[in-house]
Amino acid sequence: MGFVKKKLFVYLAGKAGRQMNKSRTFLFYMFILPWLIGFFIFTAGPMIYSLYMSFTDFSGLGAANWVGLENYKKLFTGDPLFWQSLWNTIFYTIFGVPLGLVVGYMLAVLLNANVKFMGVFRTIFYLPSLVPTVASSLLWIIIFQPDFGIANAILDFFHLPTSNWLLSEEMVKPSLIIMSLWGAGGGMVIYLAGLQSVPASLYEAAELDGAGRFKKFWHITIPMTSNVIFFNLIMGLIGSFQIFTQAYVVSSGNGGPNYKSLFYVFYLYQDAFKFFKMGYASALAWILFIIILIFTLIQFKVFGKKVYYEYDE
Amino acid sequence: MGKKKGLGILVLSLILVLSAFLTGCSGSSSDSAGGGDSKYVTLRILVWNNNPEGTKLEGEIFKAFEKENPGIKVKQVYAPYDKFNDKFLTMSAGGDQPDLVWIQPAAFGQFVGKNVLMDLSDKKIDKDAYMPNVLELGQVEGKQFALIRDASTFQLGYNKDMFDAAGVPYPKDDWTWDDFLAAAKKLTKQKNGKTVQFGMENFYTNELLVENGGGFVSQDGKKVIVDSPESIEAIQFGSDLINKHRVQPTSAQSQGLSNMFLAGQAAMKMMGPWDWADTAKNAKFKWDVVPLPAGKAGNVSAAAYLPIGIGKGTKHPDEAFKLLTFLSSGKGQDMQVDTISAVPVVKRNADKIETMKNAPENAKSLAASLANGKTVMNAPYIPEYAEIANKIQPVIDNINLKGGKDTEKQLKKIADQIRKEYNLK
Amino acid sequence: MEIAEVKAASPVKEKKTRSMKVGKRIERISTYALLVILSTVFIFPFLWLIGTSLKPENEAMTFPPTLIPKVWDFANYKDVFTLVSFGKYYLNSIIVSFFVVLGTVLSSTIVAYGFARIKGKGRNFWFVILLGTMMLPPQVTMIPVYMIFSKLGWINTFLPLIVPSFFGSAYFIFLLRQFFKTIPKELEESAYLDGCGTFGIFWRIVLPLSVPSVITVALLSFMWTWNDFLYPLIYLNDDAKYTLALGILQFKGALLIEWGPMMAASVLIILPLIILFFVGQKYFVQGIATTGGKG
Q1: CA A253 – CA A247 distance, rounded (Å)
Q2: The CATH number of domain B41-152+303-375, selected from 3.40.50.300, 3.40.1620.10, 3.10.20.880, 3.40.190.10
Q3: For residue B19, is pLDDT > 70?
Q4: C263 touches chain A (CB under 8 A)
Q5: Is C235 within 8 Å of C241 (Cβ atoms)?
Q6: C249/B contact by beta carbon, under 8 A
Q7: Chains in contact with B, where contact requires at least 3 CB pairs less than 8 Å apart
Q8: What ipTM describes this predicted complex?
Q9: CB contact under 8 A, C166 and B20
Q10: Which InterPro entries match (chain C) (predicted)?
């Protein structure tokens, strides 16, 4: 491989042309070719297949019969759990994503300091993202245990009202958001990589101008890392809309109490593999697809322009 | 020029794609699915497990089968219980269906309805070999779609030391809800306003319904019965255990504690033979079992069983049936008691239950319950059942949580909703 | 906190007063304090995991739960090695993860470069499609994807787990695009003048400048592959081919979960990840020298 690449490089390294426009398009497609091929072989077909299935009564087993818009009609008019799970998911996203973004960023800034043992600290902060969900969920159940859990013990200590947390209809979603913050170290890694590529010279220049710490943070650090902040925002959004595993484990697979932790993909999963309604689940999936797409495009419109790129044509 | 450059990148891309296949190939090894070796017929059976030991020991039974049938090899394919349908559905859709499949009773109606299981009605089945109510567990509308390998039921395990300390006589096999409640009350202890010992760990609503002749949906799958007087009484009784008599912890009190019985915090618990080994190993007290207390329907309990079916797509139907017979009425039945501590379903081995590994003193009561047909099937094989149960359960959870003051009203409401949604009586 | 990272290199700084140095020291101390306090929160679950893995079964679920086991018991670790083919799972996980990382890094960097810096017609369209592939819940495409691999005869091999990564991962393509876009245009232009082609620029200029982000991609894709159990579950049938994450699910039975061995296995599974992360994060720092110097 190395040899081939070298030859190729020599071959390509000839006199580069400025007459790019047309050949640029060609070049662009050559570069994205691996992904394009993969998309057409492994992704496009299954996506279209699931779109087709959303118009059928496919159970996951056996034959599928065309039912037209039946699934979509049922979803909007005759399924309270669709609305409940959608609301749960939007609630989780609206509060969880910005919080996760801020906490992850703050951690990364803290972990970007040049002090001894930083490697150890970084590793520790990343640990929660490594512990398997089944194990960490069990721990959270114990922490949130109303009778002897640490969460209530702390509230008690400050004479604050305690809660039933995961067993409470009002608190189950906030509890899950708290759980997710603890895994903010995942996003931290990406921020760190971003922070590291901010040129030190910028800070030096700012210092010469007498900029204080806050000013440097606000006018250099944040704009210079907006590329990764934006990435984490978009991916946080897409991921949050598909939250599923943690809620599934802490509610023992039923989305309780009273469906208050039944998230959208959780419900979709139940429909697909527990109730054998794959067609209906596919309809749910495509509605979610459209919702996420709209949210993402809005983010691109609102924030996309504010992202700092060195090179953007 | 640009074209040439592009060509170079195209070449690179192709190399990349090609290398994907090459490296991929070097990463894999040996045979692919199916097992098309000409000398052997390979049967694949899709199973879940209770623990890794179980999976290994299960293998010994298959080895015995292979020994008896030299031309056939058996291969276990494993999927964890809560991801079992994911695996079965993808395998089936991909035309790679396993020859035999363990079936979760809640999914049985769907499997039959969607025509993925072979109809065994015309096969030679030794019907007299089975204990009562066993064959029926594998039937839908009179047709046999699965055979049962083990059938058992929940009983009540109790801490003898606690009974002794509280001066409560040990329960008898024919005891009733009243007896149970009286004992549970005496076994509940408080200290500084906090309950430190509960009479009961968790009485499953499902079992209470069966004991009282109630349920979610009637056995023929045509009628919603969760608001019948029997069902209401049973659900109310369950809620009262928690909220009125306080002999059983609330969900807040028990959350995160997986086994209060073993930890010495509850005097009684629901216990099946599958719990015996764990209890025998870890209990620091004397314990025994007794049939569930009787409501209006007597000392009955829900059947807990394992149906095994043959995939319709199998290329070896005869060999598969041979294996199924071996497991459900043949030599497998003689082996499974000792190897995997699975309760047998054939009459000839009923007495083996008493002498199973780790069996408590009163294990004979389990044998008697099974031999006398005291187990009840309470999950009708209709496709929508899993979904219906999933809608009723939160209502019951809510009743248990909020104190059950309007049990009847709530149950009527959900029952009517289900009737309307699923066109049931 | 950024101050800490700017080393006193310029002569201007030396003129600064002593109070600055004291301030710096206070800042350093408070940074440490904050790090240590937060560390206890973040390390707690891991300590608990280790604690539980060392408890005998009857202590694992007692009231109130203990962090440090009363009796130290390594039986759970023994169970992990004797009850399942743990060593074999390890090897399988290493093979699969290695090839996935290789494939992901090779292909995603190339594709991301295309999306980041070559403005061809239809670029925005394909970029939206790229993001779109992540928006449809995989639960509904699982069956058709399986059907494709089944047609290819790849079931019960590692191919369905490995090969797709050679066609790029949407997540990492997007991530790398974000990084590639921040590299100064002047560098490219001077490379053009030096006679570099587009691929040369990518290979000679962009990749070396992107070491931290490429390391990030490699680390993340390794860890995700290592911990994923769903795809191995769907595509592998033989116990001998299981990966770690799938293999340890066997301790999660239908009726009860064997927490002790489960936790012990979890510790053994994430240990290499911890080491890998610890080693990998050093390259974040190395990145400064490269980018900082040239920027």
Answers
A1: 8
A2: 3.40.190.10
A3: no
A4: yes
A5: no
A6: yes
A7: A, C
A8: 0.89
A9: yes
A10: MetI-like, MetI-like_sf
